[in-house]
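EI: anyone free to look at a 451-residue chain?
SC: sure, send it
EI:
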Amino acid sequence: MARIRSSSAKAPCVYLRKHRKWPHSPYKTQWHQTFNQVLAMKSLKEAAAGATSQRRREEDPSKTGLLSPLVNSFSIYNCHPTPQAYHFVFKTLAKTSQLHDIPRVLDHLETVEQFETPEFILADLIKIYCNAREMEKAVDLFSRIPKFRIKRVAHAIEVFHRMIDDGFIVEAEICSFLLSSLCEQTDISSADVIGFFGQLRKLGFVPGLIDYANLMRFLVKGGYGNDAVDVLDQMKSDGIKPDIVCYNLVLKGSVDSRDFALADKVFDELLLYGLVPDIRTYNVYIDGLCKQGKMEVGRKMVASMQELGCKPDVATFNTLLAALSKIGNMEGARELTREMGRNGIGKDMQTYEMLIKLFTSRGEVLEACGLVEELLHKRLDGFNDGVAGNLICRLCRSGLTDKAVELIVHMAERNVCPGFGAWEAVLFSWGSKLDFPETAFMGLVDSVQIE
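SC: here you go
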C-alpha cells in the first residue's frame, strides 16, 4: 500500500532543501592551502639541494640561484611563497656563500609580496651580513626595514635589541637612523624617545649634531620645550657646539610654551656663542614678542634685522599682522601692508585671509571685497570659503546684496565656492520677493549660523 506524504511532512523537506549547507569543496579550505604550502616548501628544499649540488660540480655561482625555484615551487601548487620560505632561502644562500643572490630575493620580497615581513627574518639577515663583514649592506638593509611593510618602528627597535643581545657591535649609522625614525613617529611619548636615547648612549653611541637636532625637533613638535632645553645642555656638556638650527628649535619650544624669559635667555646665549641669527630665528623671536603684546618692540626688531642684512619675509609680516588683527588694529594693518610693498614682499594666502577677516569684522566690507578681488585675480590656491562666505553675509546684512552677488559671480569664474551660508544670506536678503517654490528650495539648504 502506497504511503501518501501529507503536506505537513512536505514543508520541512522544502525548507531543508532551500537552506541545507552543503560541505565546502576541500580545494577551498584553509587546510588545503596549508597542505599545498607544505608541498611547495618540500619542492623548494629539493630544488635548493639540487642547485647546491650543481654549483659544487660546476663551480660557477652565476648559474645557480634560488629566486626562480622559490617562485616556481609555490606557483606549481597554486599558492604564494610564505615568510618561512624566504627565511629558508636566505639561510641557504648564506650557508652556500651565495650572498650575491640575496639582493634579488630581497627586491622580490619588497616589491611583489603583500604580507608583513616578520622582523626576525630581517634581523637574521642583518646578522648574516655582519658576520660576513658586509657592514654597508647591513646598514642599507636596516634603513629599508619600513619598505618591507614593517610599519612600526617598535619592530626595528626589537631587531636592534636582538642584535645587541646576540653580541653584535651595531654601527653608529644604524643608531642614528633608528633614532631619526623614532623621532618621526607621532604615537610615541617623549619619555620613550628620551629613554631610548639614553640606552644608546649607555651602549657607547656618541650622538652627533644631527642626532641632537632630530631629538630636539621631536620634543619641540610634541610640546616638550623644556625637555629640548635639557637636550641642548647635554649637547654642550658633550662638547658639541650647537648650531643656529638647534637654537632655533629650542627658541621655538620656549615661545610655544610661553616661557618668554627662557626665550630671551636662549636668544642672548646664541649671540654670546657668536652665532648669526637667520630669518627663522628672528621670526620665532618676533612671534614671542607679539604674544607678549610687545608690538612696537617687534617692529623695532624688524628694523634691526634689516640693518644687520637679514631681510624680513612674508612670514615675518604675517606674524605682526596676526597680532594686529587680534586687537582689531586696522590702521596698523594697513601701514604694515604698505611696508610690505616697500620691501618688495607680496601678500600670500595667509596675509589675504587675515586682512579680509579683520576688515570684515570691523565693518569695512568694501575694502575686504577689494582684497578678495585682488586675491581672485592672483589665482592663489587654498582660499578658505568660510572667509568669503562670512564677507558675503556681512554685505547682505549691510544692504549690499548686489555687491554680494557680483562677488559670488567673480568667485564662480575662479572655481571658488563661497559655501551654503553665503547663498542662504543672499536668499534671505531677497526674502520679500521669493515665491513659494523658491522659499521651499531655501528650506533645503543646510542651516548655517550667520554671524
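EI: Residues 251 and 263 are 6 Å apart (CA to CA).
SC: 👍
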